[in-house]
Amino acid sequence: APSAPSSSSSTLPPTSSVADAPSPSPSPSPDEMYTLLMKGTPQDVDALLKNMCATFGDRGKTWVSEDKGGTVAAALCHRLSTHRNATEEHVELLLQALLIIARGSQAKERIRQMKGIHLLGDVMEYRTHTPCIQARACGVLANLSMLESVRADLIDQGVLDKVLQALEAHRSNAGVQHAACMVFVNMAAGVENRQAMFAEKGVPLLIAALNAHLEDTQVQGAACLALGNLSVDDALKRNIGAFKGIEAVLRAMRAHTDVTVLRSGLHALGNLARDGTFPCLCSC
């Protein structure tokens, strides 16, 4: 994400979540993948999904570029619609594959057309006590929410509330905290009624994530970035200040030399400072 300009409050652009990187193996074509996903046995599908989940990096880009029209994305959504009868491992693999494929713009739109937002919300509600599922689902939503139409769906379908619930229920899990924060990065960058959505729960939960995971670079960077995007709203600036968000951002910047954390922290502080209420930072 680029640095925030100094002349006016800004939000950093929507940001993709990333997947883990196991070793890849030879890959089938998109048509073969579609057929396997639609008609294969659970064992065959799990084998395919494990292959897909080994495709982060250059191989992952190939999956995305070859899925023209979102064919594989549609098949993954079809398979996810049966998640209530599936094993936890199978659902996690489906979500990991969706996380990779949802980096493509065509796949994002196809997932939306296949009611993927509703499906992801249902997965989160049905498996609310499973951190790995919550983290994967939030990761997919973070990638999808780069689209303005998806951001509207997240609000209209109540799925943003489920992300808030995940952030609150899994405070000790850094994976859930990072992925949920990334959803808020994109939501805060592109939604007008930020105050109504984030003032009551979102801001304190983001600050709690900063305080609870001080050593985790990904959580610190994502939470600072989300707070920076939220703080283009003057009322939310005051809300962030009231929950000691400025102190939390400063702690993050003191604790890390990572450029992403520092850039995100500066973005947050720059936007928070622009209403003239930034507190004295000296020790007087």
Summarize the structure in words.
- With 284 residues, this protein is mostly helical.
- The protein is built from 17 helices and no strands.
- The longest helix is centred in the middle third of the chain and has 17 residues, at 174-190.
- The two termini are 35 Å apart.
Summarize the structure.
The chain is mainly α and 284 residues long. The chain is built from 17 helices and no strands.
Please supply descriptive tags for the structure shown above.
284 residues; mainly alpha; disordered C terminus
Compute the number of helices. 17
Global morphology: elongated
How many DSSP E strands?
0
Helix content: 55-70%
What is the average per-residue confidence, as pLDDT, rounded to a whole number? 84
How can the largest sheet be summarized?
none
Beta-strand portion reads under 5%
Name the structural class.
Answer: mainly alpha
Q: In terms of quaternary structure, what is this? A: single chain
Q: What is the first-to-last residue Cα distance?
A: 35 Å
Order of helices and strands: HHHHHHHHHHHHHHHHH
pLDDT < 50 runs, ≥5 residues: 1-7, 20-24, 276-284
Gyration radius over CA: 19 Å
